[in-house]
Amino acid sequence: MRDMILRALTNIAARVGGPMTFRIILQPLMASIFAVRDGLRDAREDRPPYLWTIITDPSQRVGLIRQGWTAVGRVFILAIVMDVIYQLIVVGWVYPLELLTIAVLLAVVPYLVLRGPVNRLVRSRQGKPVRSAAQERR
Predict the structure, then answer these.
(1) Alpha-carbon dihedral of residues 65, 66, 71, 76, nearest 10 degrees?
(2) DSSP states of the chain as a string?
(3) For 75-112, how does the pLDDT look when each residue is reduced to its tens digit (9 = 90+)?
(4) Distances (CA, A) of 135 to 49, 56, 58, 64, 132
C-alpha cells in the first residue's frame, strides 16, 4: 500500500515537468474562465456564493452541482483524455486513481475555488450585501 501511494505521488509530481506540461496551465485557466463567467452571472442575479451554498444549503445542492458540472464538464473530460495520453506515453499504463485525481485538481478545484469569490468581489464592489444561502432563507 505504501509503495502504491509513493508511486502515485511520484507520478503526479512528475506531470509538472514532463511532456504535455502546457495542460497544467491550460486546463485550470479554462476552468477559471468558466468560474469567472458564472461568478459574474451569480453577482448579476444576486445569488449567494457558489461553494458555500453547496455546503450549507441541501435544497440547492443538486441544482448547483449540476450547473457547475455543465460548466466544467468539458474541461474535466479534456483533463481525463490528456492524462490518459500522458500516462500511456510516459508510464505505459493507465492508473485510474491518478487520472481522476489529476482531472479533479486541474478542472474542478479551480472552478470551485474561484466562482464564489468572484461573486463576492463583484457584489462588494457594487455595494450590494453578500449573503449566504442560510441568511437568504430567513
Answers:
(1) 80
(2) -HHHHHHHHHHHHHTTTSTTTHHHHHHHHHHHHHHHHHHHHHHHTTPPPHHHHHHH-HHHHHHHHHHHHHHHHHHHHHHHHHHHHHHHHHTSS--HHHHHHHHIIIIIHHHHHHHHHHHHHHHHHTT-----HHHHH-
(3) 999 999 998 998 898 888 899 988 999 899 999 999 99
(4) 12, 11, 14, 18, 5
Span 8-55, pLDDT tens digits:
788 778 777 777 788 888 899 999 999 999 999 999 999 999 999 999
What is the C-alpha to C-alpha distance for residues 61 and 80, in angstroms, rounded to an integer?
Answer: 25
Indicate the domain borders of the chain. Answer: 2-137
User: C-alpha grid cell for residue 78?
Assistant: 479534456
Say if CB 50 and CB 39 are below 8 A apart. yes
Cell numbers at residue 32, please? 477559471
